[in-house]
């Protein structure tokens, strides 16, 4: 009995034409989002820790000042979305590799997707609805730019 092994560069026959190769797009996303995350994270760390007085300067007022500008809101939201989807896709890959039972795999994948969606929605809401002058802060603890009620 002989087995013929085709050359490594031989194009594969497509068994299902017109279908999207999700694994290929997931693989590409991991590479591209990883590069973007490196830029976003190191930019975030540089602005927060290197510029100014470093970690001593980071407090509630610092965050309030950053989130007062749309640039930093979008920077953090893009970083959140990329990181959550990147991490969820990595966890999906691990589950697909190690969970052999179909039902267990499905439950784990649904749990990962649900956690990612909930955290993305909550994180996005926090960034875009952040109000440093909410009415729950006592007047003696309010920031200097907040009107006292």
TrEMBL record:
GO cellular component: membrane
Major location (coarse): membrane
Keywords: Heme, Iron, Membrane, Metal-binding, Transmembrane, Transmembrane helix
The keyword Membrane belongs to this UniProt entry's keyword annotation: yes
Signal peptide (UniProt feature, chain positions): none
Record keyword Transport present: no
Molecular function as annotated in GO: metal ion binding
InterPro entries: SQR/QFR_C/D (IPR034804), SuccDH_FuR_B_TM-su (IPR000701)
Transmembrane segments: 28-51, 71-95, 107-130
Compartments reported by the entry: Membrane
Protein name: Succinate dehydrogenase
Lineage: Bacteria, Bacillati, Actinomycetota, Actinomycetes, Micrococcales
């Amino acid at each position: 009995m002989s087995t013929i092994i085709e050359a490594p560069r031989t194009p594969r026959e497509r068994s299902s034409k017109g279908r999207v190769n999700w694994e290929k797009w997931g693989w590409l996303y991991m590479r591209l989002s990883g590069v973007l995350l490196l830029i976003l994270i190191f930019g975030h760390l540089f602005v927060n820790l290197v510029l100014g007085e470093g970690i001593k300067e980071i407090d509630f007022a610092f965050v309030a000042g950053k989130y007062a500008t749309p640039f930093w809101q979008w920077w953090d939201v893009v970083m959140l979305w990329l990181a959550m989807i990147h991490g969820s896709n990595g966890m999906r890959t691990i589950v697909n590799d190690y969970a052999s039972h179909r039902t267990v795999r499905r439950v784990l994948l649904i749990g990962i997707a649900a956690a990612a969606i909930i955290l993305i929605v909550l994180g996005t809401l926090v960034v875009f609805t952040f109000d440093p002058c909410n009415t729950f802060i006592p007047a003696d603890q309010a920031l200097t730019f907040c009107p006292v009620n």
